[in-house]
Design goal:
Elements lengths: L2 E6 L4 E6 L3 E6 L2 E6 L14 E8 L12 H14 L3 E10 L6 E12 L3 E12 L2 E10 L6 H10 L1 E2 L7 E13 L2 E10 L3 E2 L6 E3 L2 E7 L6 E8 L6 H15 L6 E2 L16 E9 L2 E10 L2 E10 L7 H10 L1 E4 L12 E6 L4 E6 L3 E2 L8 E5 L8 E7 L6 H15 L1 E13 L2 E12 L4 E12 L3 E10 L3 H6 L9 E2 L1
Antiparallel strand pairs: 1-2, 2-10, 3-4, 4-5, 5-9, 6-7, 7-8, 8-9, 11-12, 11-22, 12-21, 13-15, 14-15, 15-16, 16-20, 17-18, 18-19, 19-20, 22-23, 23-31, 24-25, 25-26, 26-30, 27-28, 28-29, 29-30
């Protein structure tokens, strides 16, 4: 059997898979799923025959009891598949990876009854490294050839390495007031939450220029924001032109690239308008990405710096930071008359950003590659979720909405639609629906508001707020803006 090597830099692993198989990344709990050409499968089995890799951060599932050992993980897995009705269960120690970089792990093989596909044969191998467990799984319907050779080659080839880039990130704002062409404005420049402030104070002001400097907690990555009031004689175009010429002169020969065309979909410019430029270049074994936005007589510059060769893994982070930049009139209020404060959640694998309340916390334990859940008080009781899923084929907006309605009608007793109105999600058509009903699993009456849309023809996007009836108004009034803040990057 011929194989092809797959590498995931974001997750930090490589694996061999059968040549010609389809590759689907970051779906559900799987980092990658490999499936054979559809003509080799029965149609009802099209999703059952697959080779996949899942990675779990055990530090998010410890409940304060420490990282489980490989033996613990095996026993938990045996218990789980036994409860699912596993038959012919076998397990034992195994080696995973090539001879020069093998890991001690365990294997499991068993059969499960699957409605519509009959018996499915499952082979799994896993090992634990630091706080992560890596699981390679082959699922094959009984009517198909065993494909055990594909599984054995995948397990024998599996290698891990230091990942590059970020999967998701929460961005927080450095905000301040500034006078732009005689108007009192307030800007917000965003930086990853856990990055380290390298200024001697919260900001550094010098000669009309204010700067904010940060570095990543891991790796040699730096981020700088600066705000500069222009001299009276300098226009936006003249400032950008001078900055471009300076950067070109400092860059390594033939490394300078103008990517200003990409800023159109990222930036939200105020009514006064302005000029925007974006450049990438190399200098002295370092890579730089620079965005310059001039609004009226004020210039905002954001610079991301990495070691040479690593910038490609942080392009989406830079996009998220630039797209979150805001300049608003001082005094902008929320629905209850307070100053609107928020942080930005960026999903860098799925390439979107959403503004969320400061009170929202991401549930690492319950979130998957497709769905991200947020809670306010109890990590086990999320109130808001964002889903971005590949539907597998082109799907109509109304059909996607009906799928979501069906789910709520089946999960809530006496479910009823309170409101259903057309809306927008980014620049796509969407539906915003409010529902009520009794949730027997939660044991209380629920109110749900969701906005759904189909983007890029086949990706379903769902933003959903769900709480018990008595808490709904308070949570909604502090988070209503989430539904209109979604943006693809």
């Amino acid at each position: 059997m011929e194989v092809t090597k797959y590498q995931s830099f974001i997750h930090g692993f490589s694996i061999d898979y059968p040549k010609g198989w389809k590759v689907s990344e970051n779906m559900g709990f799987s980092a990658v799923i490999f499936t054979p050409p559809i003509h080799s499968q029965q149609s009802q089995e099209s999703t059952m025959l697959n080779l996949n890799v899942s990675i779990q951060d055990l530090s998010n599932a410890t409940n304060g009891n420490g990282i489980p050992s490989p033996d613990d993980f095996l026993n938990i897995s045996i218990q789980q598949v036994s409860q699912m009705g596993a038959r012919a269960l076998k397990h034992g120690p195994t080696k995973i990876g090539p001879a020069h970089a093998q890991y001690d792990g365990y294997f499991m093989s068993y059969m499960l009854e699957n409605e519509g596909s009959g018996i499915v044969k499952i082979n799994q191998s896993f090992f634990i490294n630091n706080t992560f467990t890596y699981v390679v799984t082959l699922s094959v319907p009984s009517r198909e050839p065993s494909l055990i050779e594909a599984y054995e080659k995948a397990v024998a080839s599996f290698t891990i390495f230091a990942p590059k880039g970020l999967k998701t990130v929460m961005l927080s704002a450095d905000s301040n007031d500034v006078d732009i062409v005689g108007n009192s404005m307030r800007y917000s420049l965003f930086t990853p939450n856990n990055w380290i402030n390298t200024n001697s104070s919260s900001s550094n002001s010098n000669n009309g220029r204010t700067s904010y400097s940060y570095k990543a907690p891991i790796g040699d990555i730096k981020l700088d924001h600066s705000v500069e009031v222009l001299a009276n004689q300098s226009t936006a175009k003249a400032y950008c032109s001078k900055a471009e010429n300076t950067l070109r002169m400092r860059s390594t020969k033939d490394s300078f690239v103008d990517r200003s065309i990409t800023l159109g979909k990222l930036l939200t410019m105020p009514a006064v308008g302005g000029e925007a430029k974006r450049f990438i270049f190399t200098r002295a074994q370092r890579e730089y990405q620079v965005a310059i936005v001039v609004i009226g007589d004020c210039a905002f510059t954001t610079t991301l710096e990495t070691t040479s060769g690593d910038m490609e893994y942080f392009n989406n982070l830079f996009d998220a930071i630039v797209s979150s930049f805001r300049v608003n009139e001082i005094g902008a209020k929320d629905a209850e008359g307070g100053a609107l404060e928020y942080k930005v959640f960026a999903h860098l694998i799925k390439s979107f950003v959403v503004n969320v309340p400061l009170s929202f916390k991401m549930s690492d334990k319950l979130s998957t590659n497709d769905a991200v859940l947020f809670y306010v008080k109890d990590p086990e009781m999320p109130v808001f979720s964002m889903t971005f899923e590949d539907m597998g084929s082109i799907v109509a907006q109304e059909d996607y909405k009906q799928l979501i309605l069906q789910f709520h009608n089946e999960s809530m007793q006496g479910a009823k639609i309170v409101a259903d109105r057309p809306s927008r999600l980014d620049h796509y058509k969407a539906s915003t629906v409010e529902m009520m009903g009794f949730d027997p699993q939660m044991g209380n009456h629920r109110r749900v508001v969701f906005k759904c849309s189909v983007v890029r023809r086949r990706f379903g996007v769902l933003l959903s707020l769900s709480t018990n009836k008595t808490e709904f108004e308070g949570v909604y009034n502090s988070s209503f803006f989430v539904f209109d803040s979604f943006k693809l990057i």
